[in-house]
Amino acid sequence: MPATVLVLVETINDYLPILEQQGFHLILAPTPAERSAAISRHGAQIDAVLTRGPLGLYADEINALPALKIICVIGAGYEHVDLQAAADRGITVTNGAGVNASSVADHAMAMLLALVRDIPRCDAAVRRGEWPKVMRPSLAGKRLGILGLGAVGMAIAKRASNGFDMTISYHNRQNRKDVPYDFCSTPTELARDCDFLVVATPGGIGTRHLINRQVLDALGANGFLVNIARASVVATADLISALEQRRIAGAALDVFDAEPRVPDALKSLANVILTPHVAGLSPEATQGTVELVGRNLVAFFSGEPVLTPINLPSGLSIAVL
Fold first, then answer.
1. Which residues of the chain have pLDDT under 70?
2. What pLDDT is stored for residue 1 in this prediction?
3. Which residue from 77, 165, 227, 263 has the fewest beta carbons nearer than 10 Å?
4. Fold of 101-274
């Protein structure tokens, strides 16, 4: 009998035949109402759940799925998946770290360029029949700080260094000996040493509000912030205050605390660029992500180790059939 997969993700429908061709039975539940109904109606037969970090899978939902054996998270982040509840049940959890790194890095650089060169306001002015001569900084030769030097951070660093001759520094959980970039021991030190600061670290308790007033003040009045990671990494109230008071020059944000709701204060600011959490979305990234999910599911239900396991709490090992 084929394994049944509950699909909570709303942006991958065109690529779901990849999983169906591998023999998996899919139940689609992309809205909160459909999710609740699917768990209530089909909970006893659901073997796997496909979700993403902001959508998560909560303890009460895990407890309502007695047949659940594996949770596959699209993308690197898994901040709203209850890992302890999964560990208590011996449920395997995987993610898609690195698969969409190119797409996210492209978006980060696009946002940085648009922000620093003030492209949206120039475009709006021309459409109004105006012809402003705006003097804006160049990216060439500037200092780029990257918070989180994983797959996405590395892809951003490569583009910035090779494409724009930028000097790269970073803050990471560990000082990486395999990169030619400068390590900063704290986010504040990183902000102080850069012109542009890009947030590329996972979300979760360990990174919550790493970017706060102290860091923003270190970035300074001529500094720009780009966040294509998770909103929880940045203290939103501190950011809004810094933007309103021009203690930093501007910010470009793809992620928000209560998506899809965006604070009105951010919408009203002229020195902010906003996009609707789309950095990781591209046909190439989405196909690659679903293919990785398929490989993880096939491996798991064949009794083989999964490709991209997430370490569970309390030192529990990832179980396989």
1. 1, 315-321
2. 62
3. 165
4. Rossmann fold (3.40.50)
What tokens were used for 82? 């209850």
pLDDT value of position 191: 98
The Cα–Cα gap between 27 and 35 comes to: 10
Domain over 4-99+283-315 is classified CATH 3.40.50.720: yes
* DSSP-based helix, strand, coil % in the chain, nearest 5: 40, 15, 45
Q: Give the helix ranges, DSSP H, for 193-235.
A: 213-219
Interatomic CA distance for residues 75 and 94, integer angstroms: 10
Q: 46, 97, 104, 107: which is closest to 74 by C-alpha?
A: 97
pLDDT tens for each residue of 277-311: 999 999 999 999 999 999 999 999 999 999 999 99
Residue pair 79/311 in contact by the 8 Å Cβ criterion: no
Question: What would the two tokens of residue 15 be?
Answer: 């690529």
Rounded to whole angstroms, the Cα distance separating 157 from 167 reads 9
Closest by CA to 147, choosing from 179, 95, 189, is 189
Residues whose CB falls within 8 Å of the CB of residue 183, separated by 6 or more in sequence, listed in order: 169, 170, 171, 172, 175, 176
Q: Please provide the DSSP assignment of 65-130 as one string.
A: -TT--EEEEESS--TTB-HHHHHHHT-EEE--TTTTHHHHHHHHHHHHHHHHTTHHHHHHHHHTT-
- What residue ranges of the chain are covered by domains with CATH 3.40.50.720? 4-99+283-315, 101-274
Cα-Cα-Cα-Cα dihedral of 121, 278, 179, 193, to 10°? 40
Q: How far apart are CA 249 and CA 241, in angstroms?
A: 12
Q: Is residue 56 left, alpha or beta, with left meaning phi > 0 and alpha meaning psi from -120 to 50?
A: left
Find all residues with CB under 8 Å of 270, minimum gap 6, and list them: 121
What are the backbone angles phi and psi of residue 81, rounded to the nearest 5°?
-90, 125
Phi, psi of 138 (to 5 degrees): -95, 155
- 9 - beta bridge partners? none
Residues with a catalytic annotation lie at: 230, 259, 277
| Cα dihedral 249, 259, 58, 108 sign | negative
- At 159, is the secondary structure helix, strand, or coil? helix
